[in-house]
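Table S7 (text form). Paired inputs.
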Amino acid sequence: MISEFLNKLASMRIDTKYRDSWITIWTRLYANDPRLEISLWANWNQKLQISKLMLPFVFPIRDRLDGIPGGHVNRPQNGQEFPIVDWTLLNMDDGAKIGIVCPDCYGVDGTLNVLRFTLLRSPVYAWHDPTKLDKNSFYRYTDRGEHRFRFTLMLDLDPEELKRMALSEHRPPICYDWTKGMK
């Protein structure tokens, strides 16, 4: 039954609004391709808020391996946010391994069966708590405007395969047609 589903193309688009911000999410499955692609476009106009993509899973996440510069490291699913580079590998309680390539995301946290990617933060530029903000002053807020994020989910990958997939996301093929004219 799953193979019948994977032999067909499936795509879904979700348009949503949160206060002054708009978000469009595309999910895609391609025929005979085991990847699930998630593309997210956000026009983020919030102030002093954070945006996260939450991915709930049926089974609890036992532990995860996050990509870091020069390698990878085991991280707990305790709700604490950690920096990542390009990918994470989830070891599920049912024995499955779910690899997620995320070349546009740099922070992730999780609890039990939920993984949360930090997408956008909009604090005042160079502001540090506990300094109080003056409501009559002008401030510049970070991460506002248009942003794009890409996620690819696959089963049963190892860290080296995830690293190669992430590298291919950073280096897409360049194609061009160059002619010097016709005689």
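Next pair, protein 2 of 2.
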Amino acid sequence: MAFYATQRRVKEIGIRKVNGATVTDLLLLLSKDVVIWIAISFPLASLLSYLFLHDWLKGFVVKTPLSGWIFMLAGLSAFLVALLTVGYQTWKTATTNPVESLKTE
């Protein structure tokens, strides 16, 4: 998905780069979309998984509590993996010569 998002906006990145945008500006621009999707999906996924796991764990003889830190750790790891992936793809696209991306236009 990160590759698709950056390839879809290669010409935009090239134009922004020609107009003086730094790599940091481009990283923030493309990472913003991913952060919004994670912020929307994480609470929904946490709620659904908590409800499913709570009902599933009721069926066992030995009871174990569900802790909130497990969900926070999963959300943090998903957030970091997404940002690293998007950051790498954006950095790779942003450090290319803008003439290469604008040549085909």
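Helices lie at 2-8, 10-18, 23-58, 68-94, 98-102.
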